[in-house]
Write a structure and sequence with these properties.
Shape: globular
Structural class: alpha+beta
Strand content: 25-35%
Largest sheet: 8 strands, mixed
Number of helices: 11
CATH topology of the largest domain: FAD/NAD(P)-binding domain
């Protein structure tokens, strides 16, 4: 027997966009249900770069003190080696903001924090192990979600359904929304390498002829991303794990002792990189935000923060309306109108980076030299504040203006 639930807003997906929006709508007193298909938020190799824009949002919500008590590492200067030549990409210390650093924090800690903080809002319900499998329709209007739970099927009738279920969005697919693929020349192998407290290194990115890698100091381990040509995973595997690990250690000698943590291909996670976006984020009764509306490249680690910005803008524009009833299609379209320009600009800059750095670096045998813009930014320190602003704050950062329910 199918259970039935009625709510004002059903959010599909408990990632950064979904949990932040759920928190903001619950804070506004909107009856909201967040569906998360997994039993917990623990998924390895998820984006865990929390940028100044997101830290500012947490501050505006009065959550920052508790948030920064969670274990995290801080990064201000983004430094790299380009064919052995030092480059400095950005200096967040130059930003005139309250939190001028990137916080590296496991995404599951971020999401758990939002869930726990949201428990005080009686109108917010987070349903774990609840997977949206289809949409409920009332004529041309999306009227809710059909979901699968361990106890059976549940129909969730909602005045508004918001898809936050990622780049492989079920809701988006069921709604038949058209996706524009922009493309990326690379995929990424994510892995961890052991680290001692004595092992420290400021280098963030390394580029050698035919190879590129990023390393994050996570305190007791290195989080690493080895960039490979798009669709090149099988060719990398054919060379063998030992050959790959030897390449990695040659690029980053600091990993020599900890690379033994990578014992098999199971210790590496293939991330298929995609950049895409919806032509239209909206149907009657439905809105897509976050990765469900626009998948980002991992370049710059901006994906989590754009998702949070989408959630803040959505709450700013719709929370008061949702207190009264269902928003119309034009009101939903206002979210896309607000957020589409930042998304397009960010994706454009990612494509420029891919074409001028990544694609060039991945050509084997090519003599490498740092691109002129990188050399200029390295040579003129104040320019590092401009790149820091783009990476740390993004295009048109959002601030919390959504209402707070009277207690």
């Amino acid at each position: 027997m199918t259970q039935s639930i009625k709510t004002r807003c059903c959010i599909v997906g408990g990632g950064p966009a979904g949990m932040m929006l759920g928190y903001l709508l619950g804070r506004a007193g909107v009856d909201v249900v967040v569906l998360e298909k997994h039993a917990d938020f623990f998924r390895d190799f998820r984006g865990d770069t929390v940028h100044p824009s997101t830290l500012q949002v947490m501050d505006e919500l009065g959550l920052i003190d508790g948030f920064l008590q969670l274990p995290h590492q801080r990064l201000q200067k983004m430094q790299g080696l380009f064919a052995g030549t030092p480059v400095q990409i950005a200096d967040l210390g130059r930003l005139k903001v309250k939190y001028n650093f990137i916080a590296f924090m496991p995404q599951w800690d971020f999401l758990n924090f939002l869930r726990e903080a949201g428990r005080r809002f009686p109108s917010l319900k987070v349903m774990m192990r609840t997977e949206a499998v289809d949409l409920i329709r009332d004529g041309a209007r999306i009227a809710g979600v059909r979901a699968k739970t361990p106890e059976g099927m549940v129909d969730i009738a909602a005045d508004l359904t918001i898809a936050c279920d990622g780049r492989h969005s079920t809701v988006r697919e069921r709604a038949g929304l058209k996706v524009e693929e922009i493309g990326a020349p690379m995929d990424v192998l994510w892995f961890r390498a052991g680290k001692t407290l004595e092992e420290t290194e400021k280098i963030f990115a390394r580029v050698d002829p035919g190879k590129m890698m990023v390393t994050f100091d996570r305190g007791d381990y290195w989080q690493c991303a080895f960039v490979i040509p798009k669709g090149g995973y099988e060719a990398v595997k054919a060379r063998g794990l030992e050959a790959l690990l030897a390449d990695i250690v040659r690029m980053a000698p600091v990993l020599k002792s900890g690379i033994s943590d990578v014992k098999s291909w199971d210790d590496m996670k293939l991330l298929t990189v995609a950049i895409n976006r919806l032509d239209k984020w909206v149907q009657p009764g439905l809105l897509c935000i976050g990765d469900a509306a626009h998948a980002m490249s991992p370049m710059g680690g901006v994906g989590v923060n754009l998702a949070v910005q989408d959630a803040v803008a959505t709450a700013n524009l719709l929370a008061a309306r949702l207190q009264q009833g269902a928003p119309g299609e034009a009101e939903l379209a206002a979210v896309q109108a607000r957020r589409e320009f930042p998304v397009r600009m960010t994706q454009r800059m990612q494509v420029v980076g891919q074409d001028n750095i990544v694609a060039m670096a991945l050509k084997p045998g090519k003599t490498l030299k740092a691109p002129l813009p990188l050399r200029i930014v390295t040579a003129i320190p104040w320019l590092q504040g401009i790149t820091a602003r783009f990476l740390g704050l993004g295009v048109r950062p959002e601030h919390v203006h959504s209402p707070v329910a009277r207690s």
